[in-house]
Amino acid sequence: MNRREYIVAAGVGLAGTVAGCSGQSEAGSGGNGATDDATDSGTTTAESTTTATTEPTNSAYSVSMEPVGEVTFESVPELWVANNGSWADMGIALGLDAPEGVWLPSRYHTQYYDEIPGISVDGSSIQKLWGDSGVGKEQFYEIDADIHVMDPNFLQARGSWEQSDIDEIESQIAPFFGNSIFSTGYEWHDYTYYTLYEAFENLARAFQRTDRFEAFQSLHEEFRTSLDDIVPDSNSDRPEVAIMWAGSDEPTSFSPYLIEDGTSFKQWRDLRVRDAFAKTDVRDFHTDRSKVDFETLLEIDPEYLLLRGQENKTRSEFEDTVVSFLESDQTGSELTAVQNGNVYRGGPLYQGPITNLVLTERAASQVYDVDRELFNRQRVADIVAGDL
Fold first, then answer.
1. Which domains does the chain have, with CATH numbers?
2. What is the pTM of this model?
3. Residues in Cβ contact with 141 at an 8 Å cutoff, skipping those fewer than 6 apart
Protein backbone atom coordinates (compact mmCIF):
# COMPACT_ATOMS: atom_id res chain seq x y z
CA MET A 1 0.00 0.00 0.00
CA ASN A 2 1.11 3.61 -0.51
CA ARG A 3 1.39 5.95 2.45
CA ARG A 4 -2.09 7.43 2.05
CA GLU A 5 -3.71 3.97 1.86
CA TYR A 6 -1.75 2.89 4.92
CA ILE A 7 -3.00 5.84 6.95
CA VAL A 8 -6.59 5.19 5.98
CA ALA A 9 -6.27 1.49 6.79
CA ALA A 10 -4.35 1.90 10.03
CA GLY A 11 -6.32 4.84 11.37
CA VAL A 12 -5.44 8.29 12.54
CA GLY A 13 -3.47 7.12 15.55
CA LEU A 14 -0.72 5.56 13.44
CA ALA A 15 -0.21 8.50 11.09
CA GLY A 16 2.58 9.90 13.21
CA THR A 17 4.66 6.76 12.75
CA VAL A 18 4.63 7.29 9.02
CA ALA A 19 5.13 11.00 8.57
CA GLY A 20 5.98 12.21 12.06
CA CYS A 21 4.00 13.55 14.96
CA SER A 22 4.20 16.77 16.91
CA GLY A 23 3.53 17.85 20.43
CA GLN A 24 2.14 21.32 19.86
CA SER A 25 2.53 23.81 22.66
CA GLU A 26 -0.07 26.46 23.24
CA ALA A 27 0.55 29.59 21.18
CA GLY A 28 2.16 32.04 23.53
CA SER A 29 4.05 29.59 25.73
CA GLY A 30 7.63 30.56 26.33
CA GLY A 31 7.28 33.82 24.43
CA ASN A 32 10.14 36.24 24.94
CA GLY A 33 9.58 38.75 22.18
CA ALA A 34 11.88 39.38 19.25
CA THR A 35 15.49 38.33 19.51
CA ASP A 36 18.37 40.76 19.29
CA ASP A 37 20.30 41.24 16.07
CA ALA A 38 23.40 39.80 17.72
CA THR A 39 21.85 36.34 17.58
CA ASP A 40 21.65 36.49 13.78
CA SER A 41 25.05 34.81 13.72
CA GLY A 42 23.13 31.57 14.15
CA THR A 43 23.49 30.93 17.88
CA THR A 44 20.22 29.33 18.84
CA THR A 45 18.47 30.86 21.84
CA ALA A 46 15.46 28.56 21.80
CA GLU A 47 15.85 24.87 22.58
CA SER A 48 16.47 22.57 19.62
CA THR A 49 17.22 18.87 19.86
CA THR A 50 18.08 16.19 17.34
CA THR A 51 19.83 12.85 17.36
CA ALA A 52 22.02 13.51 14.31
CA THR A 53 24.11 16.40 13.05
CA THR A 54 25.25 16.01 9.48
CA GLU A 55 24.22 12.77 7.77
CA PRO A 56 20.64 11.53 7.36
CA THR A 57 19.70 8.62 9.56
CA ASN A 58 17.04 5.94 9.47
CA SER A 59 16.50 6.34 13.21
CA ALA A 60 13.75 8.47 14.67
CA TYR A 61 14.82 11.92 15.85
CA SER A 62 13.17 14.99 17.30
CA VAL A 63 13.51 18.73 16.68
CA SER A 64 11.91 21.48 18.76
CA MET A 65 10.67 24.86 17.63
CA GLU A 66 7.98 27.16 18.90
CA PRO A 67 5.06 27.21 18.54
CA VAL A 68 4.84 23.55 17.45
CA GLY A 69 6.99 22.17 20.25
CA GLU A 70 8.91 18.92 19.78
CA VAL A 71 8.32 17.18 16.47
CA THR A 72 9.43 13.57 16.00
CA PHE A 73 10.37 12.31 12.55
CA GLU A 74 10.49 8.58 11.84
CA SER A 75 12.57 9.31 8.73
CA VAL A 76 14.02 12.35 6.99
CA PRO A 77 11.27 14.33 5.19
CA GLU A 78 11.43 14.54 1.41
CA LEU A 79 8.28 16.09 -0.03
CA TRP A 80 7.53 19.45 1.60
CA VAL A 81 5.54 22.66 1.43
CA ALA A 82 6.48 26.06 2.85
CA ASN A 83 4.63 29.11 4.08
CA ASN A 84 6.69 31.64 2.13
CA GLY A 85 9.95 32.51 0.43
CA SER A 86 11.89 32.69 3.70
CA TRP A 87 11.48 28.99 4.38
CA ALA A 88 11.57 28.05 0.71
CA ASP A 89 14.97 29.70 0.34
CA MET A 90 16.28 27.91 3.43
CA GLY A 91 15.33 24.63 1.79
CA ILE A 92 17.16 25.55 -1.41
CA ALA A 93 20.21 26.50 0.68
CA LEU A 94 20.09 23.01 2.20
CA GLY A 95 20.20 21.47 -1.27
CA LEU A 96 16.55 20.40 -1.30
CA ASP A 97 14.21 20.45 -4.25
CA ALA A 98 11.86 23.42 -4.27
CA PRO A 99 8.77 23.07 -2.07
CA GLU A 100 5.70 21.66 -3.76
CA GLY A 101 3.66 24.65 -2.66
CA VAL A 102 3.85 28.04 -0.94
CA TRP A 103 1.12 30.49 -0.01
CA LEU A 104 1.93 32.99 -2.77
CA PRO A 105 4.52 31.88 -5.34
CA SER A 106 4.51 35.43 -6.76
CA ARG A 107 6.18 36.58 -3.54
CA TYR A 108 8.85 33.89 -3.69
CA HIS A 109 11.23 35.81 -5.91
CA THR A 110 13.28 33.06 -7.49
CA GLN A 111 15.03 35.51 -9.84
CA TYR A 112 17.55 36.20 -7.07
CA TYR A 113 19.07 32.80 -7.80
CA ASP A 114 20.23 34.19 -11.14
CA GLU A 115 23.09 35.66 -9.10
CA ILE A 116 24.31 32.19 -8.08
CA PRO A 117 25.94 29.83 -10.62
CA GLY A 118 24.18 26.52 -11.09
CA ILE A 119 21.12 27.36 -8.95
CA SER A 120 17.69 27.96 -10.43
CA VAL A 121 14.13 27.39 -9.26
CA ASP A 122 11.12 27.32 -11.54
CA GLY A 123 8.61 29.32 -9.56
CA SER A 124 5.82 28.47 -12.01
CA SER A 125 6.00 24.83 -10.92
CA ILE A 126 5.22 25.67 -7.28
CA GLN A 127 1.57 25.32 -6.31
CA LYS A 128 -0.23 28.37 -4.93
CA LEU A 129 -1.82 27.51 -1.59
CA TRP A 130 -3.70 30.78 -1.09
CA GLY A 131 -7.06 31.26 -2.80
CA ASP A 132 -10.05 33.57 -2.69
CA SER A 133 -11.34 31.92 0.48
CA GLY A 134 -8.00 31.41 2.19
CA VAL A 135 -5.96 28.23 2.20
CA GLY A 136 -7.84 25.06 1.35
CA LYS A 137 -7.17 21.79 3.18
CA GLU A 138 -7.75 19.80 0.00
CA GLN A 139 -4.47 21.10 -1.37
CA PHE A 140 -2.61 19.58 1.57
CA TYR A 141 -4.20 16.20 0.85
CA GLU A 142 -3.36 16.54 -2.83
CA ILE A 143 0.31 17.31 -2.21
CA ASP A 144 0.61 14.75 0.61
CA ALA A 145 3.85 16.24 1.98
CA ASP A 146 6.13 14.77 4.62
CA ILE A 147 6.41 18.10 6.45
CA HIS A 148 4.54 21.42 6.37
CA VAL A 149 7.11 24.15 6.97
CA MET A 150 4.80 26.86 8.22
CA ASP A 151 3.53 28.34 11.45
CA PRO A 152 0.13 26.78 12.23
CA ASN A 153 -0.86 29.92 14.10
CA PHE A 154 -0.41 31.92 10.91
CA LEU A 155 -2.83 29.55 9.22
CA GLN A 156 -5.38 30.31 11.91
CA ALA A 157 -4.75 34.06 12.03
CA ARG A 158 -4.48 34.69 8.28
CA GLY A 159 -5.78 31.55 6.60
CA SER A 160 -9.16 31.16 8.36
CA TRP A 161 -8.29 27.76 9.83
CA GLU A 162 -9.47 26.36 13.17
CA GLN A 163 -7.36 24.28 15.55
CA SER A 164 -9.35 21.26 14.45
CA ASP A 165 -8.12 21.82 10.88
CA ILE A 166 -4.52 21.90 12.09
CA ASP A 167 -5.03 18.72 14.09
CA GLU A 168 -6.63 16.98 11.11
CA ILE A 169 -3.77 17.73 8.71
CA GLU A 170 -1.16 16.73 11.27
CA SER A 171 -2.84 13.43 12.05
CA GLN A 172 -3.82 12.55 8.49
CA ILE A 173 -0.77 13.80 6.57
CA ALA A 174 2.29 15.26 8.31
CA PRO A 175 3.36 17.68 11.06
CA PHE A 176 3.66 21.44 10.91
CA PHE A 177 7.10 22.85 11.61
CA GLY A 178 7.56 26.59 11.35
CA ASN A 179 7.41 30.00 12.96
CA SER A 180 6.30 33.32 11.43
CA ILE A 181 9.61 35.14 11.56
CA PHE A 182 9.34 37.78 8.84
CA SER A 183 7.63 40.42 11.02
CA THR A 184 7.18 41.05 14.73
CA GLY A 185 4.10 43.18 14.11
CA TYR A 186 1.39 40.57 14.66
CA GLU A 187 -0.31 40.75 18.05
CA TRP A 188 -1.14 37.03 18.05
CA HIS A 189 2.55 36.09 17.79
CA ASP A 190 3.39 36.22 21.50
CA TYR A 191 5.92 33.36 21.53
CA THR A 192 9.58 33.16 20.57
CA TYR A 193 10.71 34.84 17.39
CA TYR A 194 13.71 33.33 15.69
CA THR A 195 16.36 35.18 13.76
CA LEU A 196 16.95 34.05 10.21
CA TYR A 197 19.84 31.80 11.15
CA GLU A 198 18.13 30.35 14.21
CA ALA A 199 15.20 29.34 12.04
CA PHE A 200 17.59 28.06 9.37
CA GLU A 201 19.38 25.87 11.92
CA ASN A 202 16.10 24.34 13.08
CA LEU A 203 15.10 23.54 9.51
CA ALA A 204 18.53 22.03 8.88
CA ARG A 205 18.00 19.76 11.89
CA ALA A 206 14.59 18.71 10.60
CA PHE A 207 16.08 17.73 7.23
CA GLN A 208 19.28 16.36 8.82
CA ARG A 209 21.50 18.70 6.81
CA THR A 210 23.26 20.69 9.50
CA ASP A 211 26.56 20.46 7.65
CA ARG A 212 25.24 22.87 5.02
CA PHE A 213 23.82 25.12 7.72
CA GLU A 214 27.19 25.33 9.45
CA ALA A 215 28.90 26.20 6.16
CA PHE A 216 26.36 28.96 5.50
CA GLN A 217 26.76 30.20 9.05
CA SER A 218 30.51 30.63 8.55
CA LEU A 219 29.97 32.39 5.23
CA HIS A 220 27.37 34.65 6.80
CA GLU A 221 29.68 35.63 9.67
CA GLU A 222 32.42 36.54 7.19
CA PHE A 223 29.89 38.52 5.16
CA ARG A 224 28.69 40.52 8.15
CA THR A 225 32.27 41.30 9.12
CA SER A 226 32.87 42.69 5.65
CA LEU A 227 29.99 45.11 6.16
CA ASP A 228 31.93 46.82 8.95
CA ASP A 229 34.13 48.39 6.27
CA ILE A 230 31.06 49.83 4.55
CA VAL A 231 28.88 51.21 7.34
CA PRO A 232 29.97 54.59 8.80
CA ASP A 233 30.87 54.55 12.49
CA SER A 234 28.74 57.58 13.26
CA ASN A 235 24.99 57.10 13.31
CA SER A 236 24.49 60.59 11.87
CA ASP A 237 26.48 59.60 8.78
CA ARG A 238 24.19 56.67 8.02
CA PRO A 239 21.29 57.17 5.59
CA GLU A 240 17.74 57.81 6.75
CA VAL A 241 15.27 55.59 4.92
CA ALA A 242 11.53 55.11 4.67
CA ILE A 243 10.47 51.56 3.82
CA MET A 244 6.97 51.35 2.35
CA TRP A 245 4.77 49.13 0.23
CA ALA A 246 3.90 50.64 -3.13
CA GLY A 247 1.70 48.19 -4.94
CA SER A 248 1.09 50.05 -8.20
CA ASP A 249 3.07 51.79 -10.93
CA GLU A 250 1.62 55.15 -9.89
CA PRO A 251 1.47 55.11 -6.09
CA THR A 252 0.03 58.09 -4.24
CA SER A 253 -0.33 56.42 -0.84
CA PHE A 254 1.94 53.91 0.82
CA SER A 255 1.89 51.28 3.55
CA PRO A 256 4.69 52.11 6.00
CA TYR A 257 7.00 49.51 7.52
CA LEU A 258 9.00 50.43 10.60
CA ILE A 259 12.33 48.62 10.78
CA GLU A 260 11.98 45.91 13.42
CA ASP A 261 13.41 42.54 14.35
CA GLY A 262 11.57 40.49 11.72
CA THR A 263 13.72 38.79 9.11
CA SER A 264 12.32 40.91 6.27
CA PHE A 265 14.36 43.84 7.58
CA LYS A 266 17.60 41.97 8.13
CA GLN A 267 19.58 43.64 5.34
CA TRP A 268 18.64 47.09 6.62
CA ARG A 269 19.52 46.26 10.21
CA ASP A 270 22.86 44.81 9.14
CA LEU A 271 23.58 48.00 7.18
CA ARG A 272 22.47 50.03 10.24
CA VAL A 273 20.39 52.55 8.35
CA ARG A 274 18.24 55.04 10.25
CA ASP A 275 14.46 54.58 10.16
CA ALA A 276 12.73 57.79 9.07
CA PHE A 277 9.49 56.67 10.74
CA ALA A 278 11.05 55.72 14.07
CA LYS A 279 10.62 59.13 15.72
CA THR A 280 7.25 59.94 14.22
CA ASP A 281 3.71 58.90 15.10
CA VAL A 282 3.45 56.80 11.93
CA ARG A 283 2.32 53.28 12.82
CA ASP A 284 3.61 50.11 11.20
CA PHE A 285 1.33 48.62 8.54
CA HIS A 286 1.22 45.27 10.33
CA THR A 287 -0.07 46.98 13.46
CA ASP A 288 -3.11 48.81 12.09
CA ARG A 289 -2.97 48.68 8.26
CA SER A 290 -2.01 52.37 8.23
CA LYS A 291 -1.21 54.47 5.15
CA VAL A 292 0.89 57.55 4.48
CA ASP A 293 0.46 60.03 1.65
CA PHE A 294 2.76 62.52 -0.07
CA GLU A 295 1.94 65.25 2.42
CA THR A 296 3.03 63.10 5.36
CA LEU A 297 6.18 62.07 3.52
CA LEU A 298 7.00 65.71 2.79
CA GLU A 299 6.85 66.48 6.50
CA ILE A 300 9.30 63.66 7.24
CA ASP A 301 11.23 64.00 3.96
CA PRO A 302 13.48 60.93 4.24
CA GLU A 303 16.76 60.74 2.33
CA TYR A 304 15.81 57.44 0.70
CA LEU A 305 12.53 55.86 -0.35
CA LEU A 306 12.67 52.05 -0.34
CA LEU A 307 9.53 50.69 -1.96
CA ARG A 308 8.29 47.16 -1.56
CA GLY A 309 5.85 45.36 -3.81
CA GLN A 310 8.10 46.01 -6.82
CA GLU A 311 10.41 43.00 -6.80
CA ASN A 312 9.00 41.51 -9.99
CA LYS A 313 10.40 44.50 -11.87
CA THR A 314 13.99 44.98 -12.96
CA ARG A 315 15.73 48.15 -11.89
CA SER A 316 15.09 49.77 -15.28
CA GLU A 317 11.42 48.71 -15.25
CA PHE A 318 11.05 50.20 -11.78
CA GLU A 319 12.62 53.48 -12.93
CA ASP A 320 10.46 53.66 -16.05
CA THR A 321 7.24 53.23 -14.06
CA VAL A 322 7.27 54.09 -10.35
CA VAL A 323 10.24 56.46 -10.30
CA SER A 324 9.09 58.20 -13.47
CA PHE A 325 5.65 58.75 -11.95
CA LEU A 326 7.06 60.21 -8.74
CA GLU A 327 9.27 62.57 -10.72
CA SER A 328 6.29 63.81 -12.73
CA ASP A 329 3.87 64.13 -9.80
CA GLN A 330 3.49 67.69 -8.57
CA THR A 331 3.79 66.76 -4.90
CA GLY A 332 5.89 63.61 -5.11
CA SER A 333 8.55 65.43 -7.09
CA GLU A 334 9.16 67.73 -4.11
CA LEU A 335 10.52 64.87 -2.00
CA THR A 336 14.26 65.04 -1.43
CA ALA A 337 14.69 61.35 -2.22
CA VAL A 338 12.97 61.81 -5.58
CA GLN A 339 14.99 64.91 -6.45
CA ASN A 340 18.28 63.18 -5.55
CA GLY A 341 17.47 59.95 -7.39
CA ASN A 342 17.30 57.92 -4.18
CA VAL A 343 14.16 55.88 -4.82
CA TYR A 344 14.79 52.12 -4.90
CA ARG A 345 13.10 48.76 -4.64
CA GLY A 346 13.03 48.01 -0.92
CA GLY A 347 13.28 44.22 -0.93
CA PRO A 348 10.66 41.51 -0.42
CA LEU A 349 8.78 40.51 2.72
CA TYR A 350 10.52 37.13 2.75
CA GLN A 351 14.18 36.22 2.57
CA GLY A 352 16.31 33.24 3.44
CA PRO A 353 20.09 32.76 3.68
CA ILE A 354 20.79 32.94 -0.06
CA THR A 355 18.43 35.76 -0.90
CA ASN A 356 19.61 37.73 2.13
CA LEU A 357 23.15 37.76 0.76
CA VAL A 358 21.90 39.00 -2.62
CA LEU A 359 19.57 41.60 -1.10
CA THR A 360 22.09 42.94 1.39
CA GLU A 361 24.65 43.43 -1.37
CA ARG A 362 22.01 45.22 -3.45
CA ALA A 363 21.02 47.38 -0.48
CA ALA A 364 24.66 48.33 0.11
CA SER A 365 24.88 49.52 -3.48
CA GLN A 366 21.67 51.52 -3.07
CA VAL A 367 22.46 53.45 0.12
CA TYR A 368 26.28 53.28 0.33
CA ASP A 369 27.20 53.27 -3.39
CA VAL A 370 29.11 50.01 -3.01
CA ASP A 371 30.08 48.76 -6.45
CA ARG A 372 31.62 45.35 -5.84
CA GLU A 373 30.64 41.83 -4.91
CA LEU A 374 30.44 41.31 -1.16
CA PHE A 375 30.17 37.53 -1.05
CA ASN A 376 31.55 34.57 -2.98
CA ARG A 377 28.86 33.32 -5.37
CA GLN A 378 30.69 30.11 -6.16
CA ARG A 379 31.03 29.32 -2.47
CA VAL A 380 27.25 29.58 -2.08
CA ALA A 381 26.76 27.22 -5.04
CA ASP A 382 29.27 24.76 -3.58
CA ILE A 383 27.52 24.67 -0.20
CA VAL A 384 24.14 24.07 -1.80
CA ALA A 385 25.67 21.23 -3.82
CA GLY A 386 27.15 19.71 -0.64
CA ASP A 387 30.76 20.53 -1.58
CA LEU A 388 31.70 21.68 1.90
1. 61-209 (3.40.50.1980), 231-369 (3.40.50.1980)
2. 0.85
3. 172, 173
